Amino acid sequence: MIWPSGGQDIAVEIDSAPNPASAQKLTFARDAGAHPLRRRFGKGSIEKIDGVVVLDICDAVRGVRVAGS
Fold this sequence. Notes:
- By secondary structure, the protein is an alpha/beta fold.
- It is 33% helix and 23% strand.
- The protein contains two helices and three strands.
- It has a three-stranded parallel β-sheet with strand order 1-2-3, covered by helices on one side.
- It starts with 9 loop residues before the first strand and ends with a helix.
């Protein structure tokens, strides 16, 4: 959780795989008035949640791995 002075709280969850507990935490944060952000970098799909921003860097990570090979 990030607490900017004078601003709205930001809740960040970092996942490498689908995790139902992460969705629950982000939904709770959203309902509590925070800006929830899910950063994802692994395999599998994740459910879409209204009001939760998803930053999916799976393609970027794959590209870096391929370029390094």
